[in-house]
Specification:
Blueprint (H helix, E strand, L loop, with lengths): L3 E6 L2 E6 L7 H8 L18 E8 L2 E8 L12 E3 L13 H8 L9 H14 L7 H7 L10 H11 L7 H4 L1 H10 L6 E5 L2 E5 L3 H10 L4 E3 L5 H6 L8 E3 L9 E3 L3 E5 L4 H11 L2 H6 L5 H4 L4 H6 L7 H7 L3 E6 L2 E6 H4 E3 L2 E2 L6 E8 L5 E8 L10 E10 L2 E10 L6 E2 L1 H7 L6 H14 L10 H20 L7 E2 L5 E3 L2
Parallel strand pairs: 1-5, 7-9, 8-9
Antiparallel strand pairs: 1-2, 3-4, 3-5, 6-7, 10-11, 11-16, 12-13, 12-16, 14-15, 17-18, 18-19, 19-20, 21-22
Helix pairs in contact: 2-5, 16-17, 17-18
């Protein structure tokens, strides 16, 4: 076990002992290092002004990803590289290509958001090195960066200028040195840092995680901290011990057995999109609207399940697809259908010492049609008012099986049993859909809140069933709004 976190910044190894478990990367940069290029705009991972880039060993190289430093706990950087806007330009090399492009294209107005945009573009610069970047890719990558001066057009032009194939920068030119430094600080043993009863743990194996949780049953489990981070920055909650799941190798695995997909609880949305979309293409448009790139880079599918939110985006689709959950503890493992994990608002079937280990998503059955939808006031960076998923097995024009699940309609993600029974055994036609739409009123009594009224939610739920039917009639022309680039961007 080691007690100091070590990470690379500006080419040097930073070592921090007794790290406050909830100190954020943003606080460290601004208050301890005096690096004020990274800004605080919202303190909840929405605006992107605090964007930094984290590098970590991956395969035979380094993977660079943009993250929101305002909700990223500093101790999660152990064994990684931190890059801020101050690191991009040097007297020898001058401005970084993305910085120069922002100057050339007049991409900065008041300047407050500019460092965040630059860092998102820097991450994209290193991710899309060998291929031409489309305008729709730029929009998707920058969705988590807000410009209050509404200067998006010149920023997009700057991205198009900077992100051309075959480019390089000082970082990529010195990749051998970066690799050597990162390899030298890779932790072998688990981490325990902090002081008194406020500790931060990073176990390295499932056994270590089980043991640590048994010793500290009141500890808060953290994977991406995209939710827990807000407890600290917005609710001002004092968390004591934290157990970080990002160091447990087993929880980061993705396994495709040909019959389905197993996702460890610490697999990020970014890593999960492609494997899940291989089996269920309809999940892609939903997952690309969960937060923004900075959130998806660290937020996890397992965390979205474990926090038990009734408006979590993933559970309705996963439940409709028949996903199963594995829970683990010192006492052993339990496997259950995902839908049985949610008991009532804020309560999940999670015994003391247990944690979510992995999720298994079975491949679609033959003759199954599947779709999922998210309705929110904004296209990106918004919480669902209603999330819906439909998985119907249709053979010979007749509905053999129906799984219908909604989020935002009840206190938990919940299947619509009356609607399902109304559909099963009937002919796949408009009359059957209308009967099922009526049956939804027997399944749910939605609430009124700031996101939507009870009446709106019910109407939307019924209309989404109608939309699903219309889309399946003609898959070539989905009934969805599209951007000027032709990408499906909204379901409502």
């Amino acid at each position: 076990m080691h007690h100091k976190i070590r990470f690379i910044r500006a080419g040097q190894v930073e070592e921090i002992d007794n790290c406050n478990p909830t100190q954020t990367v943003l606080e460290y940069l601004r208050e301890e290092k005096g690096l004020t290029g990274t800004k605080e705009g919202c303190a909840e991972g929405d605006c992107g002004a605090c964007t930094v880039v984290v590098g970590e060993l991956y395969s035979d190289g380094i993977r660079y990803r943009a993250v929101n430093s305002c909700i990223q706990f500093l101790a999660t950087l152990d064994g990684r590289q931190l890059i801020t806007v101050e690191d991009l330009a040097t007297p020898e090399s001058g401005l970084h290509p993305v910085q120069q492009a922002m100057v050339d294209q007049h991409g900065s107005q008041c300047g407050f958001c500019t460092p965040g945009f630059v860092m998102s573009l820097f991450a994209m610069f290193h991710h899309e090195r060998e291929s031409a970047v489309k305008a729709v890719d730029i929009d998707l990558e920058l969705a988590g960066n807000l410009c209050r001066c509404t200067g998006y057009a010149p920023i997009v032009r700057a991205a198009e200028q900077a992100l051309t194939p075959g480019r390089s920068d000082l970082l990529s030119d010195n990749i051998t040195q970066q690799l050597r430094q990162l390899k030298a600080i890779q932790p072998i043993n688990s981490l325990e840092t902090g002081a008194g009863d406020r500790l931060f743990f990073t176990p390295r194996t499932l056994d270590e995680l089980c043991t640590t949780l048994q010793k500290h049953p009141r500890a808060t489990l953290v994977a991406g901290a995209t939710d827990v981070g807000l407890w600290v920055t917005k609710q001002m909650r004092r968390l004591d011990s934290i157990i970080y799941l990002g160091g447990v190798g087993e929880l980061g695995r993705i396994r495709d057995d040909g019959h389905g997909l197993e996702l460890g609880a610490a697999v990020s949305y970014t890593d999960a999109i492609e494997p899940i979309s291989k089996y269920y293409p309809a999940f892609r448009s939903l997952m690309e609207r969960i937060g923004a790139k900075q959130v998806r880079n660290v937020g996890t599918v397992g965390g979205n399940i474990a926090n038990g939110s009734p408006i979590g985006d993933m559970p309705p689709g996963l439940i409709a697809a028949g996903a199963r959950l594995t829970l683990c503890s010192k006492a052993g493992r339990r496997v259950m259908d995902l839908e049985d994990f949610f008991i009532r608002y804020g309560v999940q079937d999670l015994q003391q010492g247990e944690f979510v280990e992995c999720l298994y998503l079975p491949a679609p059955e033959p003759d199954q049609v599947f779709a999922t939808y998210k309705i929110s006031k904004r296209i990106e960076q918004d919480i669902s008012a209603v999330c819906a998923a439909f998985a119907l097995k249709i053979k010979g024009g007749r509905i053999k099986d129906a799984r219908v699940c909604f989020g935002g309609m009840a206190e938990i993600p919940k299947r619509a049993s009356h609607c399902e029974r109304s559909l099963e055994g009937r002919t796949w036609n408009q009359q059957s859909i209308e009967m099922a739409m009526t049956a939804l009123a027997d399944d749910f009594t939605p609430i009124n809140d700031m996101r939507a009224s009870r009446t709106y939610r019910m109407r939307v739920a019924q209309n989404l069933l109608q939309r699903f039917y219309l889309e399946q009639l003609d898959l070539q022309y989905p009934v969805r709004l599209t951007s000027k680039f032709g990408q499906a961007v909204s379901d409502g």
